[in-house]
Specification:
- The chain has seven helices and eleven strands.
- Helix 4 packs parallel to helix 5.
- The longest helix has 22 residues.
- The chain is α/β, with parallel strands linked by helices.
C-alpha cells in the first residue's frame, strides 16, 4: 500500500509512518518545514516538502500519484492563532480532498477531534473555539465529497504507551483520553478496512483489541 500523510511531522503522523513502513508499506509524509525531513525519513517514510496553506490542489496532487490512501494529520498546533486553525485544520483538509480527487485516490482518513458536534460553550477560549469550528467544517466538507472517507475523532491525546485496546464507536461517546500510539494503530487498521468508509468514529481508551474493534465496524468480524 502507498499512503500519503499530510502533516507528516505530527506526533500521530510519525507514529503511523513508523507502523506502516515497518510492515512494508510505502509512506510519504508531506511537511512544510524542510528541517523536518530527517525526522520523517527516520520512520522509514519518504518526505515531500509542501506548504499546505499556500499550495494548490494540483501541486499537492503531484505527490499523490499511485497512492492507495491519504491521511490528513495536519494541524496548526499549539501557539497558533484562530486564523491558522481555519487555514490548516479546515482549508488544508479540503485541499487534500481536492488533490486526492484529482489524483484518483479514493480512500481518505481524516483525524478530527471529539467535541465538534456541539457549538463551543459560551466563554470558551477563542482559539479553541476556532479549532472546533474548523474541525467541524472540515468534517462537513469531506462528507460532501465522493471519496471513501472515514473520520476519526480521538479523545484527549496522551503520550503513554499504547495498550492495543480501545473503544471505537459512532458518536456520541463519553469524553475520555486515548494514547497517540493507539490512535496511530487504529488509523493503520482503518487503512486495511474499506468497510469503514462513510463512518464517523469516536476513539477512546477501552477494552476491545484494535483489530476486533475495527473489524466489527467494517462488518468483517467473524
Amino acid at each position: 500500500m502507498r499512503v500519503v500523510i499530510a502533516g507528516g511531522h505530527g506526533q500521530i503522523a510519525l507514529r503511523l509512518a513508523t507502523m506502516l513502513a515497518g510492515r512494508g508499506d510505502e509512506v510519504v509524509g508531506v511537511v512544510r518545514n524542510p528541517d523536518h525531513v530527517g525526522d520523517v525519513e527516520a520512520t522509514g517514510a519518504s518526505a515531500a516538502v509542501l506548504d499546505l496553506e499556500s499550495a494548490t490542489a494540483a501541486e499537492l496532487a503531484a505527490h499523490l500519484g499511485g497512492a492507495d490512501a491519504v491521511v490528513f494529520a495536519a494541524g496548526a498546533g499549539p501557539g497558533s492563532g484562530a486564523a491558522r486553525k481555519d487555514t490548516v485544520d479546515r482549508a488544508a483538509a479540503e485541499l487534500l480532498a481536492d488533490a486526492a480527487a484529482q489524483a484518483g485516490v479514493r480512500r481518505y482518513l481524516l483525524i478530527s477531534s471529539t467535541g465538534v458536534d456541539a457549538p463551543p460553550a459560551e466563554g470558551t477560549d477563542e482559539v479553541w473555539a476556532a479549532y472546533l469550528r474548523a474541525k467541524k467544517a472540515a468534517e462537513e466538507a469531506i462528507r460532501a465529497t465522493e471519496l471513501d472517507w472515514t473520520i476519526l475523532r480521538p479523545g484527549r491525546l496522551t503520550d503513554g504507551p499504547g495498550t492495543g485496546r480501545v473503544l471505537l464507536a459512532p458518536p456520541p461517546v463519553d469524553r475520555d483520553e486515548v494514547t497517540r500510539d493507539d490512535t496511530a494503530a487504529v488509523l493503520a487498521a482503518l487503512l486495511d478496512a474499506p468497510g469503514t468508509a462513510g463512518q464517523t468514529l469516536e476513539l477512546r481508551a477501552g477494552d476491545d483489541a484494535i483489530p476486533d474493534a475495527v473489524a466489527t465496524l467494517a462488518g468483517t468480524r467473524s
